[in-house]
């Protein structure tokens, strides 16, 4: 196993960091790695905002449900889907690009572009001995995130990423069985096989929680996820996205 | 610079592969790396379909605009946003999850989850000396992709990834200036600074194309992208996504 694969397989989210900022050189390397990711038809439909300002970090932490590691870390990145520059280019080049920009397809392109860049940043940071945690909690209130970051229209902040020197060493959480996530030549059509895979995984996760909590927590993945999904969260998203002129047409 | 960072910075898409399939062990390692990526609230809302069947590869290649490397490679992966298993879990657990699953927010979550997994797969493959190319062209006709892959409802194929032993050695394409993609503490608000960055990049890309084509091609990034965006492509996407019960509510 090479170093890169062992870095990737060793990933676990870090939620407690030493009080030590990343150097500008580290930040630059991480962003350059993000930029080296593939991008759909060379569109580069994302941007990254790094937060050093303590008050801004505090506000982003409050938005994310007061997760302390949003405030206390080595650096905090926000990854945005960004079609703003493409609208400027359209104007400049005298081309009619808005129908294209305001489509579900281009929204997907921008979200995927941003996520590919982010994961390169994550792997790069981890290869440097740093820890990371994605912060989807920013989506609790993107209006306020936009205000904090002064983003123009057609820029949708998607998630944050706290990066820093790890001050904890949590275990890895078992993932869905390989056979459940990876299918060959077509999706698994046998519902019994499919549900058996879920059951197997539920037993594994239940044992994992039980062991980690000395028997206090025993829930399965299915019950945890069904409970989470029953809560209707962030249902303002469609309105927000279309209001920001990345329309879902 | 460590090995991982040099792998990431060295990325360029490979569009010509040796006629040599990946081993099952290589495929397994790549998928396990994909699964090690972060996932929003542990939801794991994606799946991966690997294609070995020659006829299926041929059909996917035709859908993607007859890109030969979709057919001829070491292995072909399709990454899907997948909320199918979550709807089954909801039923099984007797929880009302459909409002949540059929929201723009969960669509974003599933797309991001799939993209993070894919980029881990890409970096892992490249670290093994393999080359990769993302294939967004599958989105030319997702109805047919679904038919080829027999995917159930709530599964949206997002893009493919051709992987294999490189049979070419293309150069790296310069990315947008660092200062254009990365902002500190807030988005760049000075339009002159912003447009100057684009101009600088246009000169760089123009010189890059001119050199690579011995003077035959000189277009800028702005003109290339504006021209691409003027073509209205894949405007069926919203209808497709909602029809597949990942609703954009």
Written overview of the protein:
Chains A, B: It comes from Neobacillus piezotolerans. Chains A, B: GO terms for molecular function: oxidoreductase activity. Chains A, B: Keywords: Flavoprotein, FMN, NADP, Oxidoreductase. Chains A, B: Residues 8-165 form the Nitroreductase domain. Chains A, B: Belongs to the flavin oxidoreductase frp family. Two copies of one chain form a homodimer. With 249 residues, chain A is an alpha+beta fold. Chain A has two domains: 3-170 and 232-243, NADH Oxidase; 178-218, no CATH class. Chain A has helices spanning 3-9, 24-35, 54-63, 68-71, 84-93, 98-101, 104-127, 142-149, 178-181, 191-212, 221-230, 237-243, and strands at 46-51, 75-82, 131-135, 155-164, 182-184. The first copy, chain A, has a four-stranded antiparallel beta sheet with strand order 1-2-4-3, sandwiched between helices. In chain A, helix 3 packs antiparallel against helix 8. At the A-B interface, helix 1, helix 2, strand 1, helix 5 and helix 6 of A face helix 1, helix 2, strand 1, helix 5 and helix 6 of B.
Largest sheet, strands/sense/barrel of chain A? 4 strands, antiparallel
C-alpha termini separation of chain A: 45 Å
Binned, the helix content of chain A reads 40-55%
Spatial strand arrangement across the major sheet of chain A? 1-2-4-3
């Amino acid at each position: 196993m090479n170093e890169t694969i062992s870095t990737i397989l060793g990933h676990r989210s870090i939620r407690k960091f030493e009080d030590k900022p990343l150097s500008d050189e580290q930040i630059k390397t991480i962003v350059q790695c993000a930029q080296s990711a593939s991008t759909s038809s060379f569109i580069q439909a994302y941007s990254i905002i790094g937060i050093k300002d303590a008050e801004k970090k505090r506000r982003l932490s409050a938005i994310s449900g007061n997760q302390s590691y949003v405030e206390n870390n080595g650096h905090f990145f926000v990854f945005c889907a960004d079609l703003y520059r493409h609208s400027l280019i359209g104007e400049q080049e005298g081309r009619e690009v808005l129908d294209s920009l305001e489509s579900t397809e281009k929204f997907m392109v921008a979200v995927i572009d941003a996520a590919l860049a982010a994961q390169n940043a994550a792997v790069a940071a981890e290869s440097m001995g740093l820890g990371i945690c994605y912060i989807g909690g920013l989506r609790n209130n993107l209006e306020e995130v936009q205000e904090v970051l002064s983003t123009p229209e057609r820029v949708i902040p998607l998630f944050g990423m706290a990066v820093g020197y790890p001050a904890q060493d949590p275990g890895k959480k078992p993932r869905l069985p390989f056979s459940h996530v990876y299918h060959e030549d077509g999706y698994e059509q046998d519902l019994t096989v499919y549900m058996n895979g879920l059951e197997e995984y539920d037993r594994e996760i239940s044992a994992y929680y039980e062991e980690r909590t000395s028997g206090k927590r025993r829930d399965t993945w299915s019950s945890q996820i069904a409970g989470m999904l029953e809560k209707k969260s962030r249902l303002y998203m469609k309105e927000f996205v279309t209001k920001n002129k990345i329309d879902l047409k």
